Amino acid sequence: MVALLQLVALLAAFAGLVAGLGPLIRMIEAWSARRHAARHSAPPGRSLQVVAADLRRLGRQVAMVPAGMSMVRRRALLAAYDDVLIEAAGMLGVASGLEEVPEGRAREVERLRVAAELRAAGLQVPL
Predict the structure, then answer these.
(1) CA geometry: angle at 7 spanning 3 and 11, to 5°?
(2) For each of the chain's 127 residues, which pLDDT tens digit applies?
C-alpha cells in the first residue's frame, strides 16, 4: 500500500512539473527576449551616413532648382535642406543658428556657414 501511495505521489509530482513547465518556459523566453532587445536596441536616430546622403541629395536639388518651380515647393525644399543641416550639425557638434534666423539673406549666409563648418568637420557637403 505504501508503495502504491509513493507511485501516485510520484506521478502527481511529475504531472505538476509538466503542467508548470510550459508557463515557466514562456516566462524564461520573455525574459530572454527583453534582455536581448535591451542589449541590441537600434540607435534612437538616423545614422550619420543616412543624414550625409540626404544632405548631398538635397544640396544638389537646392543648387539645381528648375526655373519653373513654384515658390511653395522651393521653400519646402529649402526647409527640408535646413532640417537636415541642423540634424547633421547636431550630430557633429557644430553650432547652428538656422532655427533662429528669419528667411532672407541672413538665413542664406547662415546656411552657407553651417555647410562650410560641416565640410571642415569632414562631411562632404555641397556648398
Answers:
(1) 170
(2) 888 888 888 888 888 777 877 787 888 888 888 887 777 765 577 888 999 999 999 989 988 888 888 999 999 999 999 999 999 998 888 888 888 888 889 999 999 999 999 999 888 887 7
The residue among 124, 97, 102, 100 whose CA lies nearest residue 113 is 97
In whole angstroms, give the CA distance from residue 54 to residue 71: 22
CB atoms near residue 83 (< 10 Å): 14
Give the C-alpha separation, 80 to 51, whole Å.
12
Q: What is the dihedral of CA 57, 59, 64, 69, to 10 degrees?
A: 90
State the Cα–Cα distance between residues 48 and 68, nearest whole angstrom: 33
